[in-house]
Amino acid sequence: SKLISLGQLEMTWRSRVHFNPLLVRVLHKSRLRYYGKPEKKMDMPYQAYFEVADGSGMMSVVLWNSLCPEWYNSVKVGSVLLLEQYAIKTNYPFKTQPTPGDSQMKRFATIEISLNVRDPPTKISIIPEEMVKPEWGLPEVKYRFITRSELDNLPNNHFCDVIGLVTFVGRAERARKREHGEDFWLYRWAHAIDGTSDQPFILELFATSQPDVFEHIHPMTYLVCTQMRVVRDPTENPSSTIYLTTSNESQIFITGWHKGQPYTKDTKVKNFIQWTKTQNEGDQMKKTVIGGYYPFPRPPNNFLKY
After folding, report:
1. Apex 174 CA angle, 155 and 204, nearest 5
2. Do residues 100 and 27 lie in contact, with contact meaning Cβ atoms separated by under 8 Å?
3. Are residues 73 and 177 in the same domain?
4. What is the pLDDT of residue 220?
5. How far is CA 149 from CA 32, 118, 195, 275, in A?
C-alpha cells in the first residue's frame, strides 16, 4: 500500500478525508492513564500515548479506551508499527513532552494521531524487527545515558537515562495526588551505583505502568531508568540534595528484562557491564540495604533550622 510520511501528513491533513498508512518506530511510551469518573459510564476509560518517528520527524500517537488493554503491553519502545485507518486531531496543548535522544529530530507538534476502536476502527500491526528494512529510513532509538560523576553538573529539570547496580531499595510509600483527594501516587526510593563516583544515584521511582518490574526491584539487580528528571534544590548544598525522579515517559528495567532492549547497544551501558565484571559480588552484597523508612531530602541537622 502507498505510505505517507509524518511530514507529509502534517502539511496535507486538512485537505484529506482518508489517510494513507503510516510506518513508524516508537521512541517513547507514556504511562497508562485512567480518566474514569463515577458519573460517566464508560467501559474502559484509558489513554496512553507514544512518540513515534519516521525519516521526516516525530509525532504523538494516542491510544484510546479498549485499545489500551489490547495493545499497551505489546507496543514497546523500539517497536515498528504499521498504522491504518487512524484519525487526526489537533495536538492537546497540556501533554508532557519527552526529551528526544536525538536533539536534531524534528517534532511535529500541531497534530496528533488518534487510534480508536471505531470512527474509524484503527488497524495496528507490529512489524517484527528482523523484517524491518534499512531502506524504510526509520530512526533508531537513541538515549541520553549519564554516569553518576556527570550528574553533579546537570541543571534542575534536565532529562537523562541511567544504569546502575542497586544497593538500596526502600519500601513502597504513598503520597496524595491532591491535598484532599482520595487518589495516591505509589513510589519507592532506590540507590544505584555505577563505579564512576563514591556517591550513588538517588532515585525516586513512581509506579509506572510496569507493576511486575516495580515490585521486584531489589539489591544487586542491574537497573535501567529512562527519561528521568533531575531534581536539585539550589538553596541547599547542591550535591547532597540532587536526585532523579520518574517522568510520565519513564521506563524501568531490571535484570531479566534487558534482553532485546534498544539501550543494550549504548556505549555507556556497555561500559557499565564491563565495570560490573570487575566487582566482587560478595563485597557489594555486604553494602546493600532493603526496606525501612527513608526520609529524603533529609531534614536539617538542628531544630532551629527545621
Report:
1. 25
2. yes
3. no
4. 96
5. 33, 50, 9, 14
pLDDT recorded at residue 183 = 83
Asked whether the beta carbons of 90 and 109 are under 8 A apart, the reply is: no
Backbone angles phi, psi at 282, to 5 degrees: -60, -40
Partners of 176 in beta bridges: 184
For the chain, the straight-line distance linking the first and the last C-alpha, in angstroms and rounded, comes to 66
- Are 292 and 154 contained in the same domain? yes
Which of 208, 248, 237 has the alpha carbon at shortest distance from 297? 237
Residues 68 and 184 in one domain: no
Q: Of the candidates 115, 136, 157, which is a domain's last residue?
A: 136
Does one domain contain both 232 and 283?
A: yes
User: Which pLDDT score, from 0 to 100, does residue 235 have?
Assistant: 64
Our count of domains for the chain comes to: 2
Q: Which residues of the chain are modeled with pLDDT < 50?
A: none
Provide the CATH number for the domain around residue 105.
2.40.50.140
How many Å apart are CA 199 and CA 224, to the nearest integer? 17
pLDDT tens digits for 107-127? Answer: 999 999 999 998 889 999 999
By residue range, what is the domain housing residue 81? 6-136
Closest by CA to 77, choosing from 52, 111, 107, is: 52
- The length of the chain is 306
Q: Which three cell numbers stand for residue 161?
A: 537515562
What is the structure's pLDDT at 208? Answer: 86
Are 6 and 108 within 8 A, CB to CB?
yes
The most distant pair of C-alpha atoms in the chain lies apart, rounded to whole Å, by 72
DSSP per-residue letters across 139-182: PPP---B--HHHHTTSPTT-EEEEEEEEEEEPPPEEEESSTT-S
Domain stops at, among 116, 136, 156: 136
What's the rounded Cα separation, in Å, for the pair 77 and 261?
Answer: 8
Write the single-letter amino acid at 291: G
